[in-house]
Amino acid sequence: MNRKRIALGIIILLFFVTLLSAGYILDKLGPRLGNDIDAGEIGSGKEIGELPEEEEVIPPNIEVTIVAAGDIMFHSPQIKGAYNPETNEYDFRFAFEHVKKYIESADLAVGNFETVTAGEEYGYKGYPTFNSPNSTVIALKEAGFDILSTANNHSLDKGKKGIINTIDNILEHGLVNVGTYKEPTDEVHIQDINGIRAAILSYTYGCNGLEGLLTQEELKYMVNIIDEDRIKQDIEKADENQVDITVVIIHWGNEYQREPSEYQIELANKMIEWGADIILGSHPHVIQRSEIREYNGEDKFIIYSMGNFISNQRRETLNIGNKKYTEDGIIVKLTLEKDFSLGKTIIKEVDYIPTWVYRYSESGVQKHVILPTSEYIEPENENFSKEVLNMIEESYNNTIKLMDQR
After folding, report:
1. Which of 128, 202, 219, 378 could be 178's S-S partner, Cβ–Cβ 3.0 to 4.6 Å?
2. What architecture is the 65-400 domain classified under in CATH?
């Protein structure tokens, strides 16, 4: 009997302890449960403890720079000037020393390589059928270039072998070429520029009548000849690959004419309508104007000709009216910004670095050096004569007048 009473007492004691514990817990949780109910977390169909949805994190904007230069040519006097008889080698690096900082500082640098590197067995020479030493590509690589456009009227100067050897030389030295190909391909070149996907396309109006050095089938894939349907399809293909920006490098226009032709203007308009964002022209060997064109609420950039970046074309060597302008070139610097919140990439800024090719004699040969003219237009400069300084200033003024100043 005593045992039953003791057991009953224990049960009653445990019951009261349980009640007291429950009251304590409710006392502690009551405010929180009330808050949750007020917030709609309880009684709203959601399970207690379910985490709220995380807000989408928008990445910060990406900003990159592209620089572009015009015709890169190596005439016979330039080849002789780069030759070192002691080493029996050619070194062209000195020609780019003064502009190297502008090229290598960009996130992407492109230029028009208007020659071929077919090999020593073909003989090194300039106009009319160019063949340059392999070290020209080494010099461009060390100057900071990343992509060389090889579709131009001198692409076939040494035939099929010239195209193949040039591509191999460019790839061997860590650069990329666009516009000529060793094998058939339907792909367009897409370059990742620190998070911005850019399609880089390249075309030429022709190859100086040397197209017959290739079969019709080879010509279709080895050299990008300007064909409106093809350009349109390539731009559309770039869009299908979800690029952020499309750049077209195009070899067109009339030599030595400082105004773009009607054909250039018409084709530029079409390419903008098809989806091109940046058009970089070459071939006239003189600078033609640039434009910032608004299309569908976005800025597009066109420069019809970037002139000669380096060559031996100049007032002393040509018999044409505009010969002094062949010494002028320009480095175009484009700043792009990818805005993730808007889902678009814009041309944020365009800058220009006018250049001039300085030719001088040394040890019985001619040397050719590219000078950024804005750095050498002081009234006095001990490195140059007054005559040379006047030419530099004239070059700067002639160039900058043609650039869009908005």
Report:
1. 202
2. 4-Layer Sandwich (3.60)
- What are residue 367's DSSP bridge partners? 360
Which helix or strand (DSSP H or E) is residue 7 part of? Answer: helix 2-39
Nearest to 250, CA basis, from 216, 219, 285, 204: 204
> Which pLDDT tens digit goes with each residue over 249-280?
999 999 999 999 999 999 999 999 999 999 99
Digit-coded pLDDT (tens) for 27-65: 444 444 444 434 444 444 445 556 666 777 888 999 999
Q: Which amino acid is at 324?
A: K
In whole angstroms, what is the distance from residue 66 CA to residue 301 CA? 12
320, exposed or middle or buried, with CB in 10 Å at 0-12, 13-18, 19+?
middle
CA distance 15 to 18: 5
Residue 223 near residue 155 (C-beta atoms within 8 A)? yes
Q: What share of residues in the chain are helix, strand, coil (percent, to 5)?
A: 35, 30, 35
Backbone angle region of 14, left / alpha / beta, with phi > 0 → left and psi within -120 to 50 → alpha: alpha
Other CB atoms within 10 Å distance of the CB of residue 324: 17
Are 396 and 352 in contact by the 8 Å Cβ rule? The answer is no
